[in-house]
Each structure stands twice: as structure tokens, then as C-alpha cells.
């Protein structure tokens, strides 16, 4: 929390703990839902909803439905950014959480193509779009809730809590699906009904997340915005008129991590490692991805501390260097057919994912001025997801089918990480900057590190 928002230490610490838990559980629930869909797209949707297209095309279509939702993330970000800067961070978080959970549960109830024909994939795509709209607003609200409540010197650590929700959601999703494939509904039972259970379980998590989110107050910065709301222009218009270069660069910072992350979370590695050429069982691969999720979780937590110690930008650089170094070994080790080496591959790759993701909330929040911060953070994140992860599994699958080798996929991942490495090198590390509405003059100045004209707003 900035110096302009004082509170007694015990009350402040108790509030920050509630905020941290609220942002963590909310993003965990959201991404559990999202990753459950991605895994199902790799394992069952091609057979149950796109069978008439054939195995190869059907799998591409199943992966493409992952990407379709990303195209609607910017729409969700536009809406949540506008109303988040107008109505509050907490309000948007509750709306996106409930919407995502309902859409996920309904996916678990859709009949197959064999039962209702072309209506089945249409319903699947429509609900996937709703998931995309929800995800477009979720992260920005969670990031602002965590960082704007935090002490100046601990924003990196506070901002890592919503980031932790992503590997936690993946850990929970892959663990539940591994349980379904290996114990409760192995073989044909999983294809018949077992895959639906993880989707339906999201109903239970919605109630918990909704209760937690309702118990947290909105941020001090938003309360200041409310006082001056009559003087403020439409946040979206100001963002794109005065801050478009910053939005683009911020989006590119996220793109490399998102493209790399969707090799595992988007189902490509799951599908690739279970093919006849490699030969792992679904359960073995899911358990290995669960292990990778745990490493991602730990490295994300560590990156929050590093972001406060060595800076957001330096932590990012470490992460992208690791992603570049492990892009080729990731598939080389999987191709050996050794379960232990697959664990090693996913573990080392996930270290890079964590270090290039944990500092993101703090970096983004500190880049944008207070009155348009929700819009800037949410839209940059959504656009980065479109550029990076939207069709990463589809692109990877197409490259594999076209070239017959994962080397093409690795080159693609290296290219995306290099772009993000360059992008993050363009912005300044702004640790400790006052985030309050009264400090927008400083917030608008000195964003760019090299080669750019100093960034300012002139009203």
C-alpha cells in the first residue's frame, strides 16, 4: 500500500492476507476450469465432437476451439476494464468467477455429436467463448486487487499470488483428470462419462470462491477513483489514444510465456506424448504434467520474491533465457520414452515458466496510471494471450504434421520467447512507484527504458 493510504499494521496485514487468499483462490478456480477444457480437447473432444472430420483434422479442430476463446478475451478485457475502472475491481472478479464456473459445468453436460449432431460442437464452442470472455476480465482484476493493496516494498510478492493460481489450477486440473483416467474411470469409461466429472466439480469451487471474493474490500486506489469519477473520461478511449504503444509492448512481454505455457496447459504435450511414436499412457503424462505444475508453482512463488529483490525486468530476463535454453531439450527428453526424463523435461521447462510469469502482475500494475489501470492491465494481458497462447497448440500440431519433427515446434517457442525478451527490455523497472490517483504525473513519465520518447499523458 502506498504512503497515502495508512492503516494500523495489524489491520493492514490481516486485510492483505484476505486479499492474497481471495486473488489466489479466484484465479485457481478460473484456471482449473480453463485447463480442464484444454486437456479434454487433447484427449476426448476430437472423438466426441469432431469425429466426422477424421482423426487429424478433428484434433486440429479440437485444439482450435481452445484458440477461439482467446479471440474473445480482448472483448472480456474491454468490458471488465471499462467497468472495473468505473464500478470496482471486486465487482468484476465476482462476475467473471461465477460466469466461468457456470460455463464450465455446462460443458460437462453437453451431449456428444453422435447424440445431437452438429448442435454438439456448436454448443461446445459457444460455452468456450463464454469462458474466454470471463478469462479476459479475471486476471486483471485479481492482479489489481493484490498489488494495489500491497506495501510498496512487497508488490512483487503480492502480485505473485494471482500468478500462483495458474499453476495451482493446472495442478488441480491435471491431478483430477489423472485420477479419472487411472483409477475411477480408466479406458472406455473415461471417454463415456469420466471426462465430464472434472467439469462438473467446478460448481463446488464456485461457491467457495464467491464467498471469499465477497469478503474482501475494494482497493484504496479505486476508492480514490470513485471520488474523482466525474472528472474522468472513458478509460478505454484514454488508453488507446495515449497509451497504445505501451499496450502493445506489454502484450508482447506476455506472449512468449503464454505460447510456451500452452505447450503443456493447452494439451499439445499431452497429445504428443501419448501418440504411438512416443507411447506414454495418458495417466503417466498427466502425472508428469502435474509434477511440472508443482515446479511452476514453486518457481512462480520464488519469482515474486526475486521481483522485489532484483527487479521485475531482471527476473523476467532469467525466465525467458531458461525457456529459450529448454525449448529443444523439452521434446528431446520426451522422445526418449523415459518417464524420468519426461519429468526432468517438464520440470526444467516449468522453472522458466514461473520466472517469466510471477513478476507480471507487479510489472503491469506499475506501468499504467491509476485511472485507466484496470483497462490497461486487462487488455494488455488479453492481447498477449491472443498473440502467444491462442493458437499455440494448433500451430504446434500443424507444424508437427507438416514437418514430422518437434524441432519446428521448438523453433516456434524460441522465437516467441525472444520477442518477449526484447519487449521486456524496453520498459523500465518501476519498483516502489506511488500507485495513487494523485501521482499520475509520475506514473505517466519514464515508462520506456531505451530508444523511445518518454511516455506522457497530456489532457
TrEMBL record:
Q: Do you know which InterPro entries this protein is assigned to? A: MFS, MFS_dom, MFS_trans_sf, Sugar_transporter_CS
> From the Swiss-Prot or TrEMBL record, what is one GO molecular function term?
transmembrane transporter activity
> What PROSITE patterns does its record include?
MFS, SUGAR_TRANSPORT_2
**Which Gene Ontology cellular-component terms appear in the entry?**
plasma membrane
Give the main location: membrane
Record field: transmembrane: 57-79, 91-110, 122-147, 168-187, 193-213, 234-255, 285-306, 313-334, 340-365, 377-400, 406-427
Give all residue intervals belonging to the Major facilitator superfamily (MFS) profile domain: 19-432
Membrane topology category: Multi-pass membrane protein
SUPFAM superfamilies in the cross-refs: MFS general substrate transporter (SSF103473)
* One Pfam family matching this protein: MFS_1
- Keywords annotated in UniProt: Cell membrane, Membrane, Transmembrane, Transmembrane helix, Transport
Q: What is this protein called?
A: MFS family permease
User: What is the organism of origin for this protein?
Assistant: Brevibacterium marinum
Lineage, top ranks: Bacteria, Bacillati, Actinomycetota, Actinomycetes, Micrococcales
Amino acid at each position: 500500500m502506498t504512503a497515502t493510504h495508512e492503516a494500523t499494521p495489524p489491520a493492514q496485514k490481516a486485510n492483505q492476507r484476505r486479499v492474497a487468499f481471495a486473488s489466489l483462490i479466484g484465479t485457481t478456480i478460473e484456471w482449473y476450469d480453463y485447463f480442464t477444457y484444454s486437456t479434454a480437447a487433447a484427449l476426448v473432444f476430437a472423438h466426441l465432437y469432431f469425429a466426422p472430420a477424421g482423426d487429424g483434422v478433428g484434433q486440429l479442430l479440437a485444439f482450435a476451439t481452445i484458440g477461439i476463446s482467446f479471440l474473445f478475451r480482448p472483448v472480456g478485457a474491454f468490458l471488465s476494464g471499462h467497468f472495473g475502472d468505473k464500478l470496482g475491481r471486486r465487482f468484476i472478479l465476482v462476475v467473471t468467477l461465477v460466469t466461468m464456473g457456470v460455463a464450465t459445468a455446462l460443458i460437462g453436460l453437453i451431449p456428444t455429436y453422435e447424440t445431437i449432431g452438429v448442435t454438439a460442437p456448436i454448443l461446445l464452442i459457444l460455452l468456450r467463448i463464454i469462458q474466454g470472455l470471463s478469462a479476459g476480465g479475471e486476471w486483471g482484476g485479481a492482479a489489481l486487487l493484490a498489488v494495489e493493496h500491497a506495501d510498496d516494498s512487497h508488490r512483487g510478492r503480492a502480485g505473485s499470488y494471482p500468478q500462483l493460481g495458474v499453476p495451482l489450477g493446472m495442478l488441480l486440473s491435471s491431478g483430477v483428470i489423472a485420477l479419472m483416467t487411472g483409477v475411477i474411470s480408466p479406458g472406455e469409461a473415461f471417454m463415456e462419462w469420466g471426462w465430464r466429472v472434472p467439469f462438473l466439480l467446478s460448481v463446488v469451487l464456485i461457491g467457495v470462491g464467491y464467498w471469499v471474493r465477497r469478503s474482501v474490500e475494494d482497493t484504496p486506489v479505486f476508492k480514490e477513483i470513485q471520488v474523482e469519477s466525474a472528472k474522468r473520461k472513458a478509460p478505454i478511449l484514454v488508453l488507446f489514444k495515449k497509451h497504445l504503444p505501451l499496450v502493445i509492448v506489454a502484450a508482447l512481454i506476455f506472449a512468449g510465456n503464454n505460447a510456451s505455457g500452452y505447450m503443456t496447459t493447452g494439451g499439445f504435450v499431452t497429445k504428443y506424448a501419448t501418440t504411438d511414436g512416443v507411447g506414454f499412457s495418458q495417466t503417466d503424462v498427466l502425472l508428469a504434467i502435474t509434477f511440472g505444475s508443482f515446479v511452476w508453482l514453486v518457481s512462480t512463488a520464488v519469482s515474486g520474491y526475486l521481483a522485489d529483490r532484483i527487479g521485475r525486468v531482471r527476473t523476467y530476463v532469467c525466465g525467458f533465457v531458461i525457456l529459450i535454453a529448454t525449448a529443444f531439450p523439452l521434446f528431446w527428453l520426451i522422445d526418449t520414452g523415459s518417464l524420468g526424463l519426461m519429468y526432468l523435461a517438464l520440470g526444467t521447462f516449468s522453472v522458466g515458466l514461473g520466472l517469466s510469469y510471477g513478476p507480471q502482475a507487479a510489472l503491469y500494475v506499475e506501468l499504467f496510471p491509476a485511472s485507466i489501470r484496470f483497462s490497461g492491465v486487462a487488455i494488455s494481458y488479453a492481447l498477449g494471450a491472443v498473440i502467444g497462447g491462442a493458437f499455440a497448440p494448433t500451430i504446434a500440431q500443424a507444424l508437427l504434421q507438416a514437418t514430422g519433427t518437434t524441432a519446428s515446434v521448438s523453433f516456434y517457442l524460441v522465437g516467441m520467447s525472444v520477442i518477449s525478451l526484447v519487449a521486456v527490455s524496453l520498459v523500465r523497472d518501476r519498483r516502489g512507484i506511488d500507485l495513487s490517483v494523485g501521482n499520475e504525473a509520475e506514473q505517466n513519465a519514464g515508462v520506456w527504458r531505451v530508444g523511445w520518447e518518454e511516455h506522457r499523458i497530456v489532457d
